[in-house]
Each structure stands twice: as C-alpha cells, then as structure tokens.
C-alpha cells in the first residue's frame, strides 16, 4: 500500500480529532466511533470537500450508508440507531480526520448525492408558519400577569428569610418548593436561580438574594422599564424567545470569527456555546445550540474559522446572544495569529461597563492580550505585568489550566474567555502565530 | 474598596442574624435615602443589590504582585509537522479509552511513535504536553521517551504540578542532549535512588571516567543493595580503566556485589580476572594429542581464589559441584583463549568430539562446554562464536523429506542472535521461520531490530497465512501478532490486506488480518507524516 502525500490544502480543511469527538452525543458513542475509525469496515468512502460518504459493514448483510454534509453539519445514516450523530457518522469523520488517504476525493455516490440534493431542496422550501397576532398578544398578557404574581411572591419569600436571618435555616423549608412555584408562574429563569440558592455558600448568599430580589422587583414592573432593560429582564425571568421572530427582525451581516466554544451538560440537556466576533463590526455574539441526551448540539463552528453570515441579536440592554440567519458559504480558516485583545485593566473596565447596562450579567466575553497564566499556592491568575485577574477555576477542569500553562510556556499569550465578578474563565488560547488552542475540548 | 467594604459587612451581619433580631442601621449606610425604609428586610435587600452592582461595575484592576516566575527554557527543536501533532492527539486519546480493538492497537503504537519522534529531535506542541505527561504517568514504560520529548517545557510544568514529579526523577537531562553544559551532580548527592541510578547511567554513556569517579567518591557509604545496582550501571562504557575499581569490589562485603564485579571483569578480556580464568579454563580443557577430541578435566575444588573471582561454591540449581565450577570457569574465560591455544576456529572447535580426560569416549561434557561457551559469547558480545554456536541459517528441507526438526542450539538462541549484526539477525530468523513456522519464533523475533526487514516481514506474513490455512487459531499466535503490529515493515501492508480479503468473512483470521492491516496503514501514515 502506498500513502499519497496529503496536500496542504486538504489538511487545512480536515477537522481535528478533538473536534469530531466533540460532536459525539456521549462517551459511549466516542468509543464506538473509535472502533469504526479504521478503514477496514468502510467501502466506497469519499469526499468532495463539502460532504463525506461511505458504506460501513455492520452485523447485517447490507452495509449502512452514511452521509455527512460538512458545512452545517448534517448527518444521514441508514442504521437504526437513535443516537445522533450515530457511531457510523462519527467513525467516518474520524477516519477522514486521521487517515485522509482512506477517504479519497471523488464525486458523491448516487445514494449520497440523492440525500444531499433533497436536503438542499428542503432548506429552500422552509417557510415560517403563519401566526395569529391577536392570540399571541392574549397569551403574552396572561403570562405577564402570572409572572408578575410569581415575582411578587418571591420578593416576600426573600424578605421573610432576611427577617428571620440567613444563618437560621431551621424555620425555612428548602428553596426547591419556591422554585416549583416559579415554574408554575411560568418564570423558569427565576426558578433556576431560586433552586441554585440551596447550593450557594453562605458568604455569597446575600449577594445572590439581593440580585434575585432586584430581578423579582424588576419583573413586577417590567412594563415601566426602558424597552432594552425590559427585554433583559424578560429573558432572565425566562420568557421564551421565538428564533423565527428574531430572525425576521433586523440582522447584522459580518464575517464572524469563532473565538471559542464550550459544551456543558446536565442530565436533561447538552448546551454548546460558540462565541463570535464580527470582523467588520467588532461586535461580540454568542450562539447557543442544544442537544437532548444522546444528541450533540447541531452547531459546529471550528474555533479560528470565519463564517460570513447574518446574525439576529436577541433584544436586551447588552445584546450578546444571537440567532444564526443566512449563511454565505461554509466556515473557512481565519487569519493566522491571535485576535486583538485587551489589557487586564481594560478587561476589568469592560465588564464593569457591561454590568452597568445589565446588572445581572455574570461575565462578558473578553479577549486578553499579553497575559501570562501564573499558578500560586492560592490559585491561578492571569497577569499582564501591570494588573492581575483571578482565574475562575471552578468553571473549568484542572486539565484546561495546565493546558493553558503549557501553551504559554510561561510567556505572554492571547486568551479568550469569559470575565466576570468571579474571575476569568479561559476558553481559547493563542501563542504567537499558532492556530488557536481550545482549552476545554477533550 | 474600604468605603464599600464596611457597609457591606454591616448588611451581611444584619442579614445573617435577621432584621427581626438586629435592626438595620439605615442612616449609617450609603445610598440609604434611595430606598424605602418601611420594611427593613426589603430595604436591606435593596441596599445589598445596590452595593453588589456598584462593586461589580466599579471594580478596579488589582495591581500585579510582581513579575511572574521564569518561563520555560526555550526549546530549540523544530516543531512536529501539524499532521503528526494531530496523530499524537489521536494516540493519546486512544490511550484513555479502554477496550476496543482499534484503541488497543493505538496503545501498542504510542511507544513507537514516541521513540521515533524522540530520535528525530522534534518538539510536540505545548498543548499536548500535559496529555503526554499524564500518559507517561500511567505507563511507566513510556516515561523515558515521553520525558525526553516533553523537553524543557515538560520539566518546567513538572516543577509546578506534583502529579508530574516523576519527570524530575526520570529527567536527569542527558548530557549528550545538552552539549556544552556543565553536568550538575546535585542529583547524585541528594536525589532519590532511582534518580541517582539514572544520573550515573547517563553520565557513563557520556563520560565513563567521570561516572567512575563519581561512584568511587561515595562507594564506601552506599548500602549493599544500592552498590549492586550502581555497579550494574558501569556496564555502559566499561573499559580497562574500570578494572582496579572492579578488582577491589571483588573483596566487597556483599556476595552479590562480588559476583557482579566478577561478571563485569570477565567481559574485559584483558583483565587480570580474565587471565586467571583463562588459566583455570586451560587446565580444564585440552586438545587430545590426536587433535580429534577436547578432553575435559573439571576443577577438583573451588578454592578461595576462585570464590573471590565470583564462582559460587554451590550451584543454585543443585548441579554437581565439579560440573558447576567447570561451567562457571569456561563461561568467564575469554573466548579468544580457545583459537589461540588450539589454532582452530570456533566452528572447528564446536565440531570436535568432547570427552573425559580419563575416558575419551564419555561424551557427558559436551553439553556443559557448549552451554558455557554460549554464555561467554553473550557476555563478551562475540559475534564469531555466536554465529558458530547458532549454526548456519536453516534451509528448507528437500521436497518430500518431511518436516524439518528445529536445529539443536545450545543456550538461549535469542540471546546469541542479539550478538549478531542486525541484518544477519533478521536473515537468520527469517530462514528459521520459513522452515519452522512461528511456534518457537517469539523470542527470536524479539531479538530482531524494528521495523523488521522486508524479507523477515515477508517470512512472518507467509507463516501467518500458513497458520491461517492450517486451521490454527489466531490467539495461539497472539504474542507474535502483537509484535507484528509494532514491527512489520510497512512494505508488507499490501500482502496483509490481501490476506484480510482472502480470509473467510467474519472469521477470527479475517478480523485479525483486517486489524493488522489497519494498524500497518496507521503506522505507515504515522511515520510518513513525520517526514513532511
């Protein structure tokens, strides 16, 4: 067997193994995919640069047919697995990532081409369902009243606890019960914050009470607030946002640089955050994608890549979260080297300004330039020689910090992360003119 | 900060105790006039919210306490090609998974990848160093290569992370890899035992005389079991310069130290001990007057001088005393004694009949003599003798002559094989496998350098195909198969793929060959991308 020398261009476009594994819905899928990442079970595997396809020999007589459209990405496989993407799709991606010679350039096989074409047509046909504006308004009014009542009750509960003393928990029941009432009041955002109080350490408890009190107060009189702040309050209280409606509004077209991404999961949901920055506008943006257990979030935008697209920002006093609208082409590698960043002092001031707009803001996406990670007996810090920031260590695994230290070699680097009152949670690092390094992937 | 800190403490204390028990000193607090004091609890929450937002929005950056510590020393090695770096990431994640055929193979390939990259003097990207160190922490056989690869960055990280302390122990920096820098001996004087052995071993490789001097300096204060292993470290760079020290060690208090010193001295052909052994050996074996026999007269006793020269009084396996002493004497005598005293080549000597000095026809000494010569050949790294003892490479039997018997090789053939030059080793083993199959080839293959030469690889693949055809089970060859994954020449991959295609579908052999082919392809790509 001869190994053709991989061309530089193709290597650039291939996804890294970490990236592929990050698409896996769970650890079992990662393992199962690993077994299918050798060329042996595959036949007729190929790629045309925008899609991968191949037939995978399974236990049955007919091989499974797997197609992956890379830009979205979207997966199709004839296997009966309910996991998504299935192990065959992941295995094919791993094979392509690790042994490109096994997935040669070709024209799509007929069955693969059929699916890709059908998918394209579906996307064109997709239209928003007509809405009934009057009914929607009635629903909103009913909801507003219930939320206001729930928020008023929460204020009373908080004040009650302060009256009896936070140190005296004997007379008060767990917050879980109050959280359930907030769910009934259609205020899931309040419910989440209330539930978290049971796990809050005592020295931070008053802060949390106070901010929750502030939010509940704002929720009882949300109609009197300036529209942007009112939108912020509604979002935090837990009003749903209709993505289609947002996308129908104004959008910002730019070439968006992916600064980093992070997945978090609980037993109900996997959440993927992808932070962007507009190359022209300099605007920060946050895309969120969700997956049920067994499904990876369907948003894959490699860090360091640029995507020309329209984003529609969720309304608020500090717009950040956005919905991805029309895309113009697939993501492509961005410029080599780190994005422009701030000094520590500028980062601190930046978060301060953002908090002045949205008092409940926990953190703000921040690129630090010329920062050195330092480990001291009382924790990790980032310093630029003039000022120092604590690292928000509980937000990320220890391995991520060592990776950051290793990438820096003790020298200044550019690091993207979320900076807030609890410290800086790093997500991506750039050393010199190297490609970005994801700190929390794999 | 101090302006808001105290009012916050007031709020906090009041909230902890409860406004029912402790009235809120509203007027003493800033911004108190902005809240409605009617309900103290609500007023407290509002003031606390104001203070919190104020603190978060108005936080000032904390001045740096001082410059950060020194960075990692620069690493002058060129960085790995990007594809190879990705490969390392795959190999390292393969390690963390358990089970699964593909993953097990990655674990087999990681050591080879590390050794190859180390030899090429390449530097892995910093982001992968923590994963590499974690892998080496879990698998100590990876440590030497992993630590060398991690380089100065690895040491810098290990100084900060207690989990990676082993790096500082493994990584007495090899002086040969840092030319021109003075050697720092503090590890020898203060280090743990394993660190000291490593330090001495590396120093011996680089500067044997300095190593000997270092060891001599502390010898008298070392514990017996430590002395034994330090002495062992002298094997590297052993030369006549070490003889006086070793000769003195023959008088050591510890029996094991004495034995090791004697063994080292016997591998120095010009040493006084070797001369003494040569005298004893000459007395024990002589050529018969007709030149047709070697006549053996085993030592009659093991006197104090012999014992001092490392010959134990009793055989550990309970052999007859005289036969035991005889074997020890011949094994420790320089091999060149025999051609010099008889004028015969090793082959001619081995062809002679062996008899008792009293009864020429008694052949009971033949095995003892061969065995002792084989040990001597291994110890003294004598290729001529090893070749003669192994005999010519087996040749396939003539058609119809029946199955050949394995040649009778005295001693451990794999050890003798290891004395031969690599090309000869591979050729001999290939010939052996062609004739005798893989059943007894495991240790011989282990003695061959990796990757195997194409002829040897072909011989192994052919033998595997034969085994598959004969109905044997793959797992009866699992040892050889594991080695094959690491060592088979990439050129043979096509033949293996063919075997995989030909094997009965869904049979154990088809799976075995397919996996082997996959591993070979992975390995070929892995080595090819290092050349990029």
Could you describe the 3D structure shown?
With 442 residues, chain A is α+β, with helices and mostly antiparallel strands. Chain A is built from 13 helices and 16 strands. Chain A has helices at residues 8-13, 17-22, 27-35, 87-98, 110-125, 133-164, 175-184, 188-197, 202-220, 227-237, 243-248, 344-357, 398-408; strands spanning 42-47, 51-56, 64-69, 74-77, 252-265, 270-278, 284-291, 305-313, 322-327, 332-333, 363-376, 379-383, 387-390, 413-420, 423-430, 437-438. In chain A, strands 5, 6, 7, 8, 9 and 10 form a six-stranded antiparallel beta sheet that branches. In chain A, strands 13-12-11-14-15-16 form a six-stranded antiparallel beta sheet. In chain A, β1 (42-47) and β2 (51-56) form a beta hairpin. In chain A, α3 (27-35) packs across α4 (87-98), α6 (133-164) runs antiparallel to α7 and α9 crosses α10 (227-237). Chain B starts with a helix and ends with a helix. Mean pLDDT of chain B is 84; it is low at 1-5, 95-104 and 399-404. Chain B has a three-stranded mixed beta sheet. Chain B folds into five domains: 2-58; 82-171, no CATH class; 186-266; 272-389, no CATH class; 392-397 and 413-531. In chain B, α20 packs antiparallel against α21. Chains A and B meet through α2, α3, α6, α9 and α12 of A and α1, α2, β1, α3 and α4 of B.
């Amino acid at each position: 067997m001869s190994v053709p020398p991989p061309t530089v261009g193709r290597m650039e476009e291939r996804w890294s193994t970490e990236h592929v594994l990050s698409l896996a819905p769970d650890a079992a899928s990662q393992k199962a995919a690993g077994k299918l990442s050798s060329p042996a079970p595959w036949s007729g595997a190929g790629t045309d640069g925008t899609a991968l396809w191949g037939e995978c020999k399974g236990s049955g007589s007919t091989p499974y047919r797997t197609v992956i459209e890379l830009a979205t990405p979207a997966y199709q496989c004839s296997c009966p697995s309910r996991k998504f993407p299935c192990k065959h799709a992941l295995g094919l991606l791993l094979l392509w990532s690790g042994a490109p010679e096994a997935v040669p350039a070709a024209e799509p096989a007929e069955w693969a081409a059929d699916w890709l074409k059908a998918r394209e047509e579906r996307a064109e046909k997709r239209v928003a369902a007509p809405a009934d504006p009057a009914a929607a308004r009635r629903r909103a009014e009913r909801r507003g009243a219930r939320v206001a009542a729930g928020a008023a009750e929460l204020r009373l509960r908080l004040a009650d606890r302060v009256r009896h003393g936070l140190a005296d928990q004997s007379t008060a029941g767990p917050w879980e019960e109050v959280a359930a009432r907030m769910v009934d009041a259609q205020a899931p955002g309040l419910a989440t914050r209330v539930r978290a109080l049971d796990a809050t350490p005592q020295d931070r408890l008053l802060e949390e009470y106070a901010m929750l009190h502030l939010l509940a107060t704002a929720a009882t009189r949300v109609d009197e607030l300036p529209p942007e702040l009112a939108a912020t309050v509604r979002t935090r209280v837990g009003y749903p946002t209709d993505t289609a409606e947002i996308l129908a509004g104004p959008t910002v077209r730019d070439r968006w640089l992916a600064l980093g991404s992070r997945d978090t999961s609980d037993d109900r949901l996997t959440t993927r955050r992808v932070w962007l920055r507009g190359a022209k506008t300099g605007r920060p943006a946050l895309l969120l994608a969700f997956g049920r257990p067994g499904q990876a979030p369907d948003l894959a935008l490699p860090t360091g890549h640029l995507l020309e697209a329209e984003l529609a920002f969720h309304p608020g006093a500090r717009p950040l979260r956005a919905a991805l609208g029309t895309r113009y082409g697939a993501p492509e590698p961005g410029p080599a080297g780190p994005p422009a960043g701030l000094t520590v002092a500028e980062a601190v001031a930046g978060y301060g300004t953002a908090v002045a707009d949205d008092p409940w803001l926990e953190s703000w996406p921040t690129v630090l330039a010329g920062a050195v990670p330092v480990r001291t007996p009382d924790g990790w810090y980032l310093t630029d020689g003039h000022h120092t920031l604590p690292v928000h260590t509980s937000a990320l695994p220890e391995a991520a910090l060592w990776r950051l230290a290793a990438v820096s070699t003790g020298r200044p680097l550019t690091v993207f992360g979320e900076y807030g009152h609890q410290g800086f949670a790093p997500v991506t690092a750039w050393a010199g003119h190297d490609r970005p390094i994801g700190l929390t992937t794999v | 900060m101090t302006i808001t800190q105290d009012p916050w403490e007031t709020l906090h204390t009041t909230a902890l105790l409860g406004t029912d028990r402790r009235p809120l000193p509203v007027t003493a607090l800033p911004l108190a006039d902005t809240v409605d004091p009617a309900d103290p609890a609500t007023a407290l929450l509002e003031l606390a919210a104001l203070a919190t937002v104020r603190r978060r929005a108005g936080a000032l950056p904390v001045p740096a306490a001082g410059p950060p510590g020194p960075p990692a020393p620069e690493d002058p090695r060129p960085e790995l090609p990007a594809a190879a770096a990705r490969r390392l990431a795959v190999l390292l994640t393969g390690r963390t998974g358990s089970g699964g055929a593909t993953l097990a193979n990655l674990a087999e390939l990681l050591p080879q990848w590390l050794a190859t990259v180390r030899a090429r003097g390449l530097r892995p990207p910093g982001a992968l160093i923590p994963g590499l160190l974690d892998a080496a922490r879990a698998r100590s056989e990876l440590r030497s290569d992993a630590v060398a690869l991690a380089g100065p960055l690895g040491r810098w990280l290990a100084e900060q992370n207690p989990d990676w302390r082993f790096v500082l122990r493994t990584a007495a920096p090899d002086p040969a890899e840092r030319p021109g820098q003075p050697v720092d001996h503090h590890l020898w004087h203060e280090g743990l035992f394993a660190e000291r052995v490593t330090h001495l071993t590396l120093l011996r490789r680089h500067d044997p005389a300095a190593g000997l001097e270092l060891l001599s300096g502390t010898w008298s204060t070392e514990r017996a079991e430590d002395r034994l292993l330090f002495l062992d470290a002298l094997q590297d760079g052993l030369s006549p310069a070490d003889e006086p020290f070793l000769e003195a060690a023959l008088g050591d208090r510890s029996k094991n130290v004495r034995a090791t010193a004697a063994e080292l001295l016997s591998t120095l052909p010009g040493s006084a001990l070797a001369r003494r052994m040569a005298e004893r050996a000459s007395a024990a074996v002589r050529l018969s007057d007709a030149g047709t026999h070697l006549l053996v007269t085993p030592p009659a006793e093991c006197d104090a001088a012999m014992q001092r020269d490392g010959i134990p009084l009793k055989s550990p396996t309970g052999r007859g005393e005289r036969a035991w002493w005889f074997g020890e004497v011949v094994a420790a005598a320089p091999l060149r004694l025999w051609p010099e005293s008889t004028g015969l080549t090793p082959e001619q000597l081995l062809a002679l009949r062996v008899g008792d000095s009293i009864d020429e026809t008694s052949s009971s000494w033949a095995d003892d003599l061969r065995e002792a010569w084989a040990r001597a050949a291994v110890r003294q790294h004598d290729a001529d003798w090893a070749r003669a003892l192994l005999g010519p490479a087996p040749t396939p039997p003539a058609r119809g002559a029946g199955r050949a018997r394995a040649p009778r090789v005295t001693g451990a053939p794999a050890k003798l094989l290891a004395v031969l030059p690599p090309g000869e080793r591979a050729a001999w083993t290939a010939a052996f496998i062609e004739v005798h199959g893989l059943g007894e080839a495991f240790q011989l293959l282990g003695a061959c350098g990796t990757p195997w030469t194409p002829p040897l690889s072909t011989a192994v693949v052919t033998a595997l195909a034969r085994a598959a055809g004969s109905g044997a089970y793959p797992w009866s060859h699992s040892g050889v198969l594991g080695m094959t994954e690491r060592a088979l020449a990439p050129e043979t991959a096509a033949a293996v793929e063919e075997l995989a295609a030909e094997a009965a579908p869904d049979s154990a052999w088809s799976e075995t060959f397919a996996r082997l082919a996959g591993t070979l392809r992975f390995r070929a790509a892995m080595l090819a991308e290092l050349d990029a």
